[in-house]
Amino acid sequence: MTPELQSVLDRLDEVERRRRGPSILSILAALLSIATAAYTYTATLRMVPPPAAPRLSGVVEANRFLLRGLDGEVKGGMEVERDGTVKLVNGRTGAAVILAQPTGLVQLQLRSPAGVVRSALNGGVEPSLTLTSDDGASSATLVAKPGSPGQLFLSDRTGTLRRGP
Predict the structure, then answer these.
(1) I need a labelling partner for 28 at 20 to 30 A (CA). Which of 43, 74, 147, 150 fits?
(2) 125 and 146 in contact (C-beta within 8 Å)?
(3) CA-to-CA distance for 116 and 151, rounded, in angstroms?
(4) What is the dihedral of CA 84, 90, 92, 97, to 10 degrees?
């Protein structure tokens, strides 16, 4: 073998050794990437939360609702106060207040824009219906008592209470 041929073979050997190093590194990098991806995927499978309880569609929950007109202005609303009073309100034309107490008293009030109770329907042991003038001076109340005839109470503009027939 000639020295030139030996030199060419030595250089060829050197090139092949240099080429083998990066290819092994490339294979190791690819394997490491696949292992990392597999670990991440299995970790996310373990962290998936359990499915939530099914919710009924069409149910809206809140303690206050505002009702707006087509112009975007608030026209009224509905709210629940801390004591359990449920109010349906329209500030310009008056309010309807619904009250249900733990004692069994259920009441529906219709109020004027000034807040005067114009009429009240009371449910309970002795149900009653009350009608009041806007100034609050005169009123009529019909009371139904269990085991006895109903009663009618009238008050005139002077505030004098008169029992009906």
Answers:
(1) 43
(2) yes
(3) 24
(4) -40
